[in-house]
Amino acid sequence: MKRTIILILIATLMLSLSLPAWAEDAPTVTVTGNATVSLMADTATIWIGASTRKDSVAQAQSENDSIMTAVLAALLKAGIPQEDIATSMYDINVIQPDPYGSWAKDNPQYEVSNVLFVTIRDLKVLSAAIDAASTAGANNIYGLSFASSKNQEAYDRALERAVEDATRKAHVLAKATGKELGDV
Known about the structure:
Layout: H1 2-22, E1 43-54, H2 57-77, E2 85-95, E3 109-120, H3 126-135, E4 140-147, H4 151-176
Antiparallel strand pairs: 1-3, 1-4, 2-3
Helix pairs in contact: 2-3
């Protein structure tokens, strides 16, 4: 008798513990919201520099320094503030002669490259700044890209619109199935 009661208690305990597994989950609907926000660019970035090749490092550096001093002055004169101009690369390479090519020199040459990373916050001066740098001797101009200073605001606005889109879709699905939408 005592054994039967213990078995009934164990069975009841096991049954009560397994009841949550039998419980039905609340019906759900999963949707994805989409949104796009476009911005006008108000900032540009570009790499501007010069490479010089001479028979000695000193000659290559001297010529490169002269060119880059002129490039910097031209950018400042074009209206780019000093704090928006930063050296991003300064490199010295030894260029060995090609014994099988048409290069007649027997001695190596030295190439000095100096590149500035320039941020242009007034796009009206972009073309003039590039032209001024080129006229001053820059022979490496690359990586022009545009951006907006309002990226975070646009991202937040896109998230809000995506949530609105997802909520609208969920309401349409709930209505089509004859159900009511609960909390989101």
